[in-house]
Amino acid sequence: MKWLIFWLVGAVGSAAAEVRPNVLLMFLDNVGYSDLACYGNAEVLTPRMDQLAAEGVRCTSFYVVSPGCTPSRGALLTGRHPLRNGLLHQLSAEENWSGVGLPLRERLLPQYLKTAGYNTACFGKWNIGFAVGSRPTERGFDTFLGHRSGNIHYFAHTYHGERDMVRGTRRVKLEGYSTDVFADAACDFIRARSEDAEPWLVYLPFNAPHYVSTVNTAPGETPQWQVPEAVLERYDWPQGDTVEKHRYLAVLSAIDDAVGRVLDALEDTDQRGETLVMLISDMGAILRPTHGLGVASNAPYRSGAPFVYEGGVRVPAIFRWPGHLPEGRVCDEMLSTLDVVPLCLGVAGVEMPGDRVLDGRDPLSALRGEAASPHEEMVFAYGRDRALRRGPWKIVREGGKADWQLYDLGADAAETRDVAAEQPQIVEEMTARFERWEDEVKKDASEPVKFVKGPTLALAGDSTMAHYWTPVKGKPDQTGWGQMLPEFCKPGVRVVDEAVSGASSKSFREAGYWERVLAAQPDYVLIQFGHNDEPNKGDRATDPATTYSENLRRYIGETRQVGATPVLITPVARRTTVEGKLTSSLGPYVEAMKAVGAEMAVPVVDLHAASFALVEQLSAKQAQALMAPGPEDLSHFNEEGARLMARLVVQGLEAQVPGLADWLMLESPTPEPGPFHLERSVVSQGYDGQTCWVHARAGAIPGAQPRVVLTLQKLLLTGSDVFFALNDTRTSDLGQSWSPIREHGDTLGRREEPGGVILAACDFTPQWHAATGRLLGIGHTVRYLNDRVIHDRRRETAYSVFDAKSGAWSRWRTLDMPDEAKFFSAGAGCVQRVDRADGDLLLPIYFKGKDDPYYRVTVLRCGFDGETLNFREQGNELALESGRGVYEPSLTFCGGTYYLTLRNDRAGYVTVSQDGLNFGPIQKWCWDDGEDLGTYNTQSHWITHGDRLWLAYTRRGAHNDHVFRHRAPLFMAEVDRETLRVRRATEVILAPEMGARLGNFGVCDVSPTETWVTVTEWMQGLPPHHVLKPGHPLGADNRVWATKIHWQAPATAP
Predict the structure, then answer these.
(1) Into how many domains does the chain fold?
(2) What is the pLDDT of residues 175-204, one digit of tens each?
(3) Per-residue DSSP letters for 247-315?
(4) Which residues form the domain of 852?
């Protein structure tokens, strides 16, 4: 049994609980008000749900505000009305597969609870959008097993002919009755976490008893409620009952069994007393006949889903929390699913959000009987139907009609008598209230995401392209690149992967798979064969010059006959070496495919060449370690390897198939837009393979039209941190044009010391010094011998002054320090400084004595008179006895507080100060849900705008294991200034990963409305191949990026 965890509850909706309970939220699908025995159904067998009601609170006036599967779920998980959260309609099949659905600005219950340390899981029906960025594991759930769509076959798990069961983000093939599959997964999760100190959230949205239709039945199969025969046999059916009703009641009993098993898991693991359990229906039962099915379940109320009469919106709801909620209580207060988020935030000790309106209210006091409903009124909407209830009165408007109906629920709960004509004053008053509410909602509403149906891509090929529905024995991570292709498709694109293991261009047709490709009604067909066409493949083999080419021609012709566009993909390269050199036996098939493509005017994506080049860049050994699903497998891929292959395919498609390019993306969408938009520009591109540009950092000279000076220097690729003289390039038109890059060898170049030692200045950051009107660049020194860095070398803080009038840099000098032994190695390279109003600089440095094992960080106060930088005083020292210590600190001032970020070999850290000199203890950089940010052994910098703060950083966990120290992409995300955590939902990419790491970077405020982040692609890679050759298959080409952050409003003074 886990320990009870005490939590300080501040200004939250409920201060009732001193413990953070587990949360079990079970959401039933289309269960009507009178479907359960505890709600009056004398025919159904639901003993476990009845027992739950007896042990907790049963609600009689509990509502969903939108009686549709999709909007009901959006409202439940956000606590915001569908007219506010932007999701009022039911998702179509295409939207379920690849639509955004619920706008990405919306925050979900698990995202809130993760800030309080909750482990989160969802098992069941998602139905609010499954585009990349919208999937459960991207919206707060650590674990997901369920289906994307609104309803699936209970046994086959199909929807519109597609298998629709997903674990995480991967579609999988599972056996079993869906109700049991989801309940068993929840039981496993609950049992596995019984000894955890952290609480958990399990969201269990069953797909049953949603009606069954032809979209999720096999051809010729009768649409009927599906249930295990053993459950069906429990009932002694009365004479004359319909078959539909027989099966429907049995489905409810099957759900009851599943609910019982989940509750037993709590009991068996001693978690019953510390778990808040909720059981709610997503809407009333659907009454209109659908494919011959119709069951009346909402008595005594009128109508049913998807209408806003009581039968559609009033639902069963049961709450149990031992010791906190009374047993056997009936609650008649008006509550809704909107209240679930505030309830959970209250019991978890999470503050209500300050950046958005929640329509829900904490219902705990009402559930206890200590207070009336927290709602004076409640608004309902679905499609064009609207309703508002206030007290006993309810107005209803159907389908956008002008006239409102009025019902007195106190006297006529079944809404049988419209009294609008008799009570015009009440109608007028309530209509005015609805209109005021609607106007208020518009101020905070998310913009609905308009879905545009995209093309269907069908894939025909072999195991390297295939989707693996079940794990391969001994290689559970084996993944085909076709399985990863949807990661690079925009919302609206459908990918149908019919590729199959072992297929050749001959056997694929013979086994009947080609017919399935054409049956998908594709817009594009991607065709890749070759591996299994080789001579050693028995009766699958083909001859590249004859049968292989003929097969390709036939595939192309038949693709065009159905109005689709064929695209040829050359077979991916194997990671096979001979005497240490990468080799390939697929050449004849690659050349034959190219020839057929040229002959028939078909675009060809040369995946073979691109994958061969990528393996060469990484080295076959390194590529095998990163990409292979098993140590001996030289042909197939793990998930990361498959993602890289899919990325190469997408790059080729963008170049070769213009009509498809607009539907593809190499980056994930931005989860939550910030108060800015980004514009990427390239200052320079290309390198000679011997040296490359690094350390691109900008300094702005203020004026009506700011001038920007960008400093950078050459790196010797065959060395380690071997830098040449500093250079610069300049722009006076905000980056529309740049001057030629110019070396300043006379003032910013290398110098020679005795013994052949070469001294250089590097890691240089220019920044405007307002008090003197000078651009002051600060970095540090480095020493070389024979183009090798001298270890245990002396390091000084170096600086130079740029004269804006003459355009010249002063000869770099070093800062004199008070204790040379203590500050033997002391530099301000790669740092951000803060200039005080009196002209003094607060300059962070990292330093150590000659024999010290660890670097420490401190902030210096320095004077600057326009020419000379002088030490004045030192702040406290920050230390960490790990790796090389702490180093490369960056400082900013925001909202009256100084913030310092610093680097360690294993993690990034942050601390704060009120005076800019004396800082508190450092804490590790984390996401707002408490998870490690993943930044390490690389610098991070601040982006400050008004009283808001962002961090720029690189991190692991971004599908970037092939990049040296995970130093790409370069990200930006907002920092919560109170908790010093990074808000995951705000992360955006400043500079993309294209196969190379991104070097040390800079941040420059060019104007009150524009901030630039500058960085270069550093063309050294993973060992053993340190030097990346020109022509990198992922696109890296030593770009000098200048990403411009255009702010919506100008910055105010700090």
Answers:
(1) 5
(2) 999 999 999 999 999 999 999 889 999 999
(3) HHHHHHHHHHHHHHHHHHHHHHTT-GGGEEEEEEESSPPB-S-BTTB----STTSS--BTSSSHHHHB-
(4) 815-921
